[in-house]
Amino acid sequence: MLRKFLIPAGIIILFYILNILTPLIADDYSYSLGINSVADIPNSVYGSWLGWNGRCIVLFLAQFWLLVGKPYFNLANTLVYCAFILLTYFHITGGLRKFKPALFVAINLFYWFLVPAWGQNFLWLTGSCGYLWATLIVLFFLVPFRKKSDFKEYNLNIVSSALFFIIGLMAGCSYENIGAAVLFLLIAYFVMKILNKEKISLFEITGTAGFLLGFALLVAAPGNYVRMDIIMSRDHYKDAFAIIMFKRFVEITIVFFKNYGATLIAITALFAFDLLHHQKRRLNVFSYFYALAALAAVWSMMLAPVFPDRSFLPVTVFSGITLGTVISRFKIQVPAMVQRNYSFIVCLLILAITPFFVMAFKNIAGIHFKWQNRIDYILSEKEKGNLDVEVKAPIPATDRHAALYGLSDISDDENDWPNTSIAEYFGLRKIKKSQATDWGPGFFKR
């Protein structure tokens, strides 16, 4: 019985090790400043709501864990990642009672190979709180709706329905494009209920009300408009609104194809057509809602000035769930030859994918040791009274599974970010990139 959990347990342990090997990076230093107790966090969150964005819940989580400490976050983030995989599993199958380790492994592999900013989304402290943890909240929020679509008699009691308002509020206040995805999903859900003349339950009302309030707080945050004004003031955003929207549509469509979102939707449509028209089987109506959510998560970004790869996470998640729900309805006949040589085929697959994991682990571990050497050097210089420090930078991040990949490292401008935040974090006057080019044993020497 326990043997079937060995591989899933091994995956979670490896994820924990990758968390340990990931240092504080970029925004982690900025969000640590001025946070000396939990009481400092609400003021910081409110200031961000006024001056940057409305992601109140995820910013609170990030600053809480920065205050508590990275070792504790490593464990908490591992548990959240495990829950995230299980929730993906639930949304594909509709339940967890008949646990299939192969599907658990397949979901992990799907995310490993198809999430374009895996390290930023899952390992980086600020990024993980902002995307992994927020996506977990959203998937948890959608669980009762999914169960209700399967079992019309399903319901929550009065107390749970009241508390569901809070879950909805947190889901709505997550981040912009996953909020838009859930908004369109809920619209489709209630339209279907009205067309079918189905009674609306209390939890559906309280949860949706909480979500709408949270989403309104998210998109109406004054900081969104402050940030938008800064970005739109740049020369390439001085076109007419219609031209800007057209350009954004083209840019986002390119991102959709580049990150395999369009491929996933096309493959899913092909499988769904075969399932419905040739196998004469039905799909759970929620499959269509997940597909709509994936598309909404893409093109809602037309209203945003940029579409970073880490914001593509909900597109991959909802596309993957859609594909999974369709494939899980198939009656697949495994050829006798495959059954006879199952162990051999599994070994071949493991050998084929192992190099990808080795390369990622090598880069993540390399970043860890270089960053630790950098910190040791900074602290030793500080002990000597030197508060103007130069370090070798940037640390090479060549694999997208590393949290540092695509993020800012120390530059040669001491007045630039993140130099300023890192200097303040370590109590320095300034820190900047040295002119050294050798990454050998002495590369931190001035």
Query: In angstroms, what separates the terminal alpha carbons?
Result: 58 Å
Mean pLDDT: 89
Class derived from helix and strand content: mainly alpha
Strands, count = 2
Layout of helices and strands:
Blueprint lengths: L5 H16 L5 H6 L7 H12 L4 H13 L1 H24 L7 H14 L3 H5 L2 H26 L7 H15 L3 H20 L6 H18 L2 H11 L8 H18 L2 H17 L7 H15 L13 H15 L8 H5 L1 H42 L4 E4 L27 H8 L3 E4 L13
Parallel strand pairs: 1-2
Helix pairs in contact: 1-5, 3-4, 3-12, 4-8, 5-6, 5-8, 5-16, 8-9, 9-11, 10-11, 10-15, 14-16, 15-16
Describe this protein's structure.
This protein has 446 residues and is an all-alpha fold. It has 2 domains: 2-239, no CATH class; 342-433, no CATH class. It contains 19 helices and 2 strands. The protein has helices at 6-21, 27-32, 40-51, 56-68, 70-93, 101-114, 118-122, 125-150, 158-172, 176-195, 202-219, 222-232, 241-258, 261-277, 285-299, 313-327, 336-340, 342-383, 419-426, and strands at 388-391, 430-433. It has a two-stranded parallel sheet. The longest helix has 42 residues, at 342-383. The termini are far apart. The model is unreliable at 440-446 (pLDDT under 50).
